[in-house]
Each structure stands twice: as structure tokens, then as C-alpha cells.
């Protein structure tokens, strides 16, 4: 089977990119994250996991953050992401596969869950600020969009 074209295959977006898409405290990161997210939505390529949606809501509604959304705003955004993207559920199988990735590749459990969700979605790229830029793992390349866009 041929590997999907990176320009047309689904792309996974990590929580930190989604947060920057709404947090205007860093205007450059906000503009980059917002443009990337909108681009992937318009091309029907955005892939997220339930984990990312949970983390996004938790971060953007945290009372200690200077940038904070009200529950209603954050819930509406999460609902829109559910409608406009492919969402990967976390299952017992996902968890077990992620645990094997931790053992084999020495990455954190949470990062392994992101990778496993991206695998399940058929992604060729994971956009995140939290992974080593350019690293490839199992046919998925990790891209820090703030270094390349």
C-alpha cells in the first residue's frame, strides 16, 4: 500500500497548538497556530483525540491563566472541533499500544497516546511544540509549526 501524501493526509494537532490558536498573549504563535488550524479544517484534514479535547478545555478554562475562556466559550469551541475534525477515541487498545511505544521508543506516556491516536487517524504529521522537531516515528513526522511556518 502506498504511503499517503503528506499534503493531503490527515494531520494531528496537539493541545499546545490549539491553545495558541485562541490565546493571543504571543501574537506570532497565535497567528501561526490559528492559520494552521483553519487550513487543516478547510482541507478536512484536522485530526484530534479525545485526550487533546480534554486537555484543551482544561487549559483554556484554568482560573490561574492570564488568558482564560468561560466554560460556555470553551465548550462551544470543543463542540465545533468535534464537528469539524476527525476525533480519535482512546480505547483500552490505544492505551496498551501506547504503553508499548513508551517501552520501545522512550517517550512519555502522554506523547505515546498522541502518537498512537495519530497512527489510528492515518496521519503523516503531528503538529506540536512539545516533540523534537523533525523526529520521525513509525511514518509520522513531528513538526513544530513555529519553526517552519
Individual helix count: 7
| N-end to C-end Cα span | 30 Å
Shape: globular
Fraction in beta strands: 5-15%
According to CATH, the fold-level topology is Rossmann fold
Low-confidence stretches: 1-5
Kindly state the percentage of residues in helix: 40-55%
The class by helix and strand makeup works out as alpha/beta
User: Which whole number gives the mean pLDDT?
Assistant: 91
Class, according to the CATH hierarchy? Alpha Beta
Q: Main sheet: which strands, in order across?
A: 3-2-1-4-6-5
CATH superfamily descriptor: 5'-nuclease
Write down the domain tally. Answer: 1
Radius of gyration: 15 Å
- Describe the sheet with the most strands: 6 strands, mixed
Summary of the model, kept short:
Helices cover 54% and strands 13% of the residues.
Can you walk through the features of this model?
The protein is α/β, with parallel strands linked by helices and 149 residues long. The protein has a single domain (11-148), classed as Rossmann fold, CATH 3.40.50. The protein is built from 7 helices and 6 strands, in the order βααβααβααβββα. It has a 6-stranded mixed sheet with strand order 3-2-1-4-6-5, with helices on both faces. α1 packs across α2 (27-42).
Feature tags:
about 150 residues, alpha/beta, Rossmann fold, 6-stranded mixed β-sheet, 7 helices
Write the layout of secondary structure elements.
Blueprint: E1 11-13, H1 15-22, H2 27-42, E2 46-49, H3 50-60, H4 71-84, E3 86-88, H5 92-105, H6 109-121, E4 125-127, E5 136-137, E6 140-143, H7 145-148
Parallel strand pairs: 1-2, 1-4, 2-3, 4-6
Antiparallel strand pairs: 5-6
Amino acid at each position: 500500500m502506498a504511503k499517503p501524501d503528506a499534503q493531503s493526509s490527515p494531520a494531528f494537532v496537539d493541545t499546545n497548538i490549539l491553545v495558541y490558536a485562541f490565546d493571543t498573549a504571543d501574537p506570532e504563535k497565535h497567528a501561526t497556530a490559528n492559520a494552521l488550524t483553519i487550513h487543516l479544517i478547510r482541507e478536512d484534514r484536522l485530526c484530534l483525540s479525545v485526550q487533546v479535547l480534554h486537555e484543551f478545555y482544561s487549559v483554556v478554562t484554568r482560573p490561574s491563566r492570564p488568558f482564560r475562556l468561560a466554560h460556555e466559550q470553551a465548550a462551544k469551541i470543543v463542540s465545533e472541533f468535534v464537528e469539524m475534525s476527525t476525533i480519535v477515541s482512546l480505547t483500552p487498545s490505544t492505551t496498551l499500544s501506547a504503553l508499548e511505544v513508551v517501552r520501545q521508543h522512550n517517550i512519555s506516556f502522554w506523547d505515546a497516546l498522541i502518537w498512537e491516536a495519530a497512527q489510528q487517524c492515518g496521519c503523516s504529521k503531528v503538529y506540536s511544540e512539545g516533540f523534537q522537531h523533525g523526529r520521525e516515528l513509525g511514518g509520522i513526522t513531528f513538526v513544530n509549526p513555529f519553526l517552519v511556518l
